[in-house]
Amino acid sequence: xxxxxxxxxxxxxxxxxxxxxxxxxxxxxxxxxTVTRRLxxxxxTGAVRVVRMPDTRAAALGxxxxxxxxxxxxxxxxxxxxxxREDVPFVDxxxxxxxxSAVVLGGAAGRDRLLYGQLPATDAVVESTAHAVxxxxxxxxxxRCGALTADQEALLAPPPPAGPPPExxxxxxxxxxxxxxxxxxxxxxxxxxxGTPESTVRRRLHRLAAGGLLRTHVSVxxxxxxxxxxxxxxxxxxxGRLAAAGEALAxxxxxxxxxxxxxxxxxMAAVFCPDHAALYRFHTEVLGxxxxxxxxxxVVARAVKRAGVRIRQFPG
Length: 316
What we know:
Layout: H1 4-15, H2 21-28, H3 32-44, E1 48-52, H4 56-59, E2 64-70, H5 75-83, E3 90-94, E4 99-104, H6 108-118, E5 125-138, H7 150-156, H8 170-181, H9 187-194, H10 198-210, E6 216-220, E7 229-236, H11 242-251, E8 255-261, E9 267-273, H12 276-287, E10 294-306, E11 309-310
Antiparallel strand pairs: 1-6, 2-4, 2-5, 3-4, 3-10, 5-8, 7-9, 7-10, 8-9, 10-11
């Protein structure tokens, strides 16, 4: 597990993935040298990666939550095939080794080819279920590991978007693509990679951030944060209580994603828990009072792709 300072650094990056070292050091009360050394170790070992978060908020109403049941022994092949798609930012293998869960973005044509052509043509697929996203209450970028105080988090928080997102031009897209792999790349490194002056990069990133297009996500093995269980909860809530339940779950510190869906259930929540006993308490103490009529729990065995980036530990 990460020590207390490392956990604070993770939380700081969750608040602002591009926060400068000096700013983080000032808030945490340590030297900039210590922050630089610690972050270098965390990122150098692959324990922590900071990437630009795909704009799931804009695409949410066109997204699908996909559950694919596969033949035993074929799960890795299906998971890797889904992870290779640019329109699939999240892929997990569920406990038991016979189900893959994925988020599918993009246009209807690509989704239709996947659902009605590619998946049925694969003899490894036993069954697939697609849940349309009707409303996004919170996504993975909103989750915090709980290592900072509210005051520290407020000091690190970037200013909210100042207006509607700009329409990115080719240079903007190039910069966003570079940040999708490493959101902490310096202005100088981005300028060199994009072949443009550093002053231009600074100006463009300021414009993109002001429009809300520089959201970041910290990819970290939750076990390093004391989280032993990652679970997807497929919930059935009375329609009259759906909005209140979704908003309450979005505020809960253990929830790292919650969406209203179509299909057999009408709410999905992704939950981090220290252990299975805590997951049980989440059902009885959190879901019960929200009026949840039915809950199906699918525990994540392995994360394959998060926020558009492949997880290194996954084979293949």
